[in-house]
Amino acid sequence: MAAITIDFQLFFILILLWLLSRFCLSAFFSFKKPKDIKLPPSPPSLPVIGHLHLFRSALCHKSLKNLSSKYGPLLHLRAFNIPIVVVSSGSMVNEVLRNHGLNFASRQSGSVFEESLFCGVSGFTSAPYGEYWRFMKKLLVTKLLGAHSLDRTRLIREEEVKTFRAILFDKAVKKEAVEVEKEMMKLTNNSICMMIMGKRCSGENGEAERIRELVTKTIGLMKKIVIAITVGKLLKKVGISLFEKEFMQVSRSFDEIIEKILVEHEENPKKDEDKDMMDVLLEVCADENAEFKITRNHIKSLLVELFLGGTDTSAQVTQWAMAELINHPEILKKLRQEIDSVVGKTRFIQETDLPNLPYLQAVIKEALRVHTPSPILARNSMEGCNIGGFYIAKNTTVIINTYAVMRDPNSWEEPDKFQPERFMVAPQNGKEEMREQQGFNYIPFGSGRRACPGSNLGYIFTGLAIGTMVQGFNWSVDGGKVNTEETGDTMLRMAHPLMCTPVARIDPSANP
Question: What is this entry's stated membrane topology (predicted)?
Fold first, then answer.
């Protein structure tokens, strides 16, 4: 049977048609509660589709948070006959990711469209927990994201921060507003390109802008990706292919850019001491005796995931943090005093200063807590188990609502208030005690085996950017206050991108 490709709106029109045909389809989509086991509480569901409509709503992490407030920290849902469990408290996250960490170390397979570079079979972030995932994580840590690797590429980031800073001073002279998200994406995109492949994405032929556009397009598809991964295989049984045209169009565009970069590296191989991560990946791909045999598509998918995770997340966190600082001038003043005290006004903030700026770190952590970039995380149970007195069946999709966890009033005092002081270590408490206190209540980068390996790089990017903007400039916005309305679901963004005008407060010729 030829597959039918449908878009997002047509999908829900189709659902209505299915409701009319529910008796005919019951053989495919019947759901029966297993006998003699205790499932988590569940809100009322619709015939056939179950609770799928809840994931269509805007800001679904908020609607799931409201449901969990009523039904409890473990919530049982279903999409057609596919079981889903929503986790909304730190104590339950602790059970899932620590006590049963290995069982939930995998994610739902994204092989609905096998050839797609960002939701196909060659991806790293969506790969099952196994030999390939462990090999690629080790490669990422040793060659790109580990402490030694980050120290080796520090000068690359400092050069890109100089460019970022120069743009801000130029805007200040011209009295023009800065679109923070856009400038941050340039900074992170160029830094990651240099770290991975030893070159900036070319601005002359539009390569850099194309990558940024594709990252934005892919982020916009995230909700559809989650739906396709959850129910796509099921719908393929009746010849329905969800969102395939959109996914493959973006994937082919990424493929075209990355293939060109790969060919350039193959034609101009570097010496051993000058090799970047791209050279290492190509060597592993060509090595028949490698620990794990990777393909060209594995390399391309990994690069797409690094662009997605490395550029957009840092840009969003920086934008949210600056918005909160502008709206809370007393916090901005306190942060600026710390930077002036530690760094001074005769030179600019550097990466090596970051460990000596605890309040800056607290501001970043609080921005991540209040405006977590990924409000929901997905895992998959490899075996059945008991969590919090309830049974979680094998192959259940487990959604961790990080937004709800990090705004849980049982774990956080005044959880909706932007208050960096909550992350400052009190004199009577040590760092270990504070870490234990926060535990699984603070998970902006996930936790356990599948925690984001790039969290340290994210803190560096945001720390340098925020530090530069606070140290070097005063900021003003139209109306005097930033609108912090949220949009997005799987990726949280500002509904109204931050536009603010800089006024230089230190000499632009200060020593770097």
Answer: Single-pass membrane protein
In contact, 110 and 380? CB cutoff 8 Å: no
Closest of 439, 453, 451 to residue 377, by C-alpha = 451
Give, in order, the Cα–Cα distances in Å from 53 to each of 12, 43, 225, 338, 376: 9, 12, 16, 48, 17
Q: Confirm if 263 and 269 have CB atoms less than 8 A apart.
A: no
Q: Quote the tokens at residue 497.
A: 């991108």
* DSSP sequence for 402-441: HHHHTT-TTTSSSTTS--GGGGSPPTTS-HHHHHHHHGGG
Q: Where are the alpha helices (DSSP H) in 355-494?
A: 358-370, 402-405, 431-438, 455-472
- The per-residue pLDDT for range 397-419, each reduced to its tens digit, is 999 999 999 999 999 999 999 99
Cα diameter, the chain? 75
Domain ranges, ordered by start, for the chain: 4-16+34-504
Which of the 8 DSSP states describes residue 46?
B
Cα Rg, the chain, nearest whole Å: 24
Three-state secondary structure call for residue 290: coil
Q: Using CA of residue 435, residue 440, residue 442, residue 444, what is the dihedral sign? A: positive
pLDDT digits over 158-211, tens only? 999 999 999 999 999 999 999 999 999 999 988 998 888 877 765 556 677 788
Mean pLDDT, the chain, integer = 85
Tell whether residue 385 is among the known ligand binding residues. no
Question: 162 Cβ partners below 8 Å, 6+ apart?
Answer: 512
What is the residue type of 50?
G
Distance CA 12, CA 160 (A): 45
* Residue 319, SS3 per DSSP: helix
Residue pair 370/323 in contact by the 8 Å Cβ criterion: no
For the chain, what's the residue count? 512
Homologous superfamily of domain range 4-16+34-504? Cytochrome P450 (1.10.630.10)
